[in-house]
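User: Could you check the structure of this?
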Amino acid sequence: MVRIQKIGHIGLFCRDIKKMTEFYTDVLEMKVSDVNERGMVFLRFGADHHSFNLVPMSEEMKKKGDGPQALQHIALEVADLEELKKIKKHLQSKGVKGHAKVKHEGPGNNYVYDFVDPEGNNLQFFCGMDQIGWDGKSRPKEQWNRFEEDD
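Assistant: Sure, the predicted structure tokens are below.
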């Protein structure tokens, strides 16, 4: 049986590697661990060597068009709702495009703040995700509670 313990890392193809590196380091405050001979930037936000890889897009891939490449979103967990609100204000102060408010989602019963990076990839910070207990059951749909959180 496969037992995944966490998301190891995420790789993003980038049209503008410099702009994307600046966003992930200056705005999201990740640290550069390494840059390899192909120009791939390895970023971290914890103890792992890297949590993100930024990969320069080939000229052929660039010709296929603008917008994100087959990525629905990347979600990054934070400690709690107050931390999530602080991050939202920080991102807004940096001019990052995102939702106006923190939302409370139905499935998972968690708080989220959605925004985009410079190349249009959907990102999300979240906290308070439901945990599935020994019985393997999720929260029933009638208990889902969707709303927007006030600052």
